[in-house]
Amino acid sequence: MIDLDPWAWAALAVAAITIGISKTAIPGGNILAIALFAAVLPARTSTAAMLLLLMVGDVFALIAYRRHAHWPTLLRLAPAVIAGLLVGFAFLALAGDGIVRRAIGVILLLMIAVTLWRRWRQDKTDATAPAPGGILLSGVYGTMGGFTTMVANAGGPVMSMYFLATRTPVQVFLGTSAWFFAIINLVKVPFLAGLGLFHVPVLLMDAVLAPLVVIGALAGIRLAKRMDQRLFDRIVIVLTVVGAVYLLF
């Protein structure tokens, strides 16, 4: 078991609950968990430790929303995401922690700016029509999502910006996100294992924290049923901005 102070365990406990809630109610909300894990553990170790807990949350997200996924969207994103994962793996193997964090922060802020601009432009023309999800849009967001999820488990905010940009309804948003990250997180395991990041102390620590992820996921399912679309969008955007600023500074 990793030797940590009580305050550090408390921070990781909050992070584990947040992971569960983000998986079933607020995609992109796990940026808080990323910050807490990175504050307590070495950056590369935190990436591996979080991945296993995210996979626990994936199970509950799939149970709750598996039928709401939009598979054409997932297939459209797949090639760009794979490219982003490979670039992210190379970057993670070569770059220092500080460079990785700042790069992700810049990417997130750019994605937010582009998303808000697209939505403002569409509102000027037709506020009721669905936003287009073309090849260029899916290519850019898919590549950035694959890259950021590989290097820091921070793909949630990027993909949230994509789903907001295409005005995806809450249930479809959650269902598509559930399948997207369940698949991607499984794919990431051999990459991080190849870097030697899954140590026995990390596995033991995750075994202690996993029940808290379950509690958060169950709470998130109840929360999502009561959430208004506009409030949902605003929460995702605010959490993404906060996460991006944290990663930058």
TrEMBL record:
Compartment(s) of residence: Cell membrane
Name listed for the protein in its UniProt record: Probable membrane transporter protein
Broad class of the protein's primary localization: membrane
InterPro entries: TM_pro_TauE-like, TSUP
Record family assignment: Belongs to the 4-toluene sulfonate uptake permease (TSUP) (TC 2.A.102) family.
TM spans (from-to): 6-26, 47-65, 77-96, 103-120, 140-165, 172-191, 197-219, 231-248
UniProt entry keywords in alphabetical sequence: Cell membrane, Membrane, Transmembrane, Transmembrane helix, Transport
